[in-house]
Amino acid sequence: FVAHAPGAGRVELAGDFNNWQPDITPMTLNGSDETFQTLLPLAPGRYRYRLVIDGGWHSDPFNNYVEANPFGELNSVVEVG
Length: 81
Prior knowledge:
Layout: E1 2-4, E2 11-15, E3 28-29, E4 35-37, E5 45-53, E6 56-58, E7 66-68, E8 74-80
């Protein structure tokens, strides 16, 4: 997973794969002050996720595959083959 988050101090990943607990999956700054990344070993399947940027929950702006969640917001979706 890669997230472009200019000016962010902390970026985490929350989703089906970590029981929606962002502190389990922090993303690492990738050589600049704008791009964060993490590598997850995921089994084949469909996963919903959100980026947690400095405590705020966001859908992934670079992934158009989304679905509404019970809170009226959008979860990003990724399929692993």
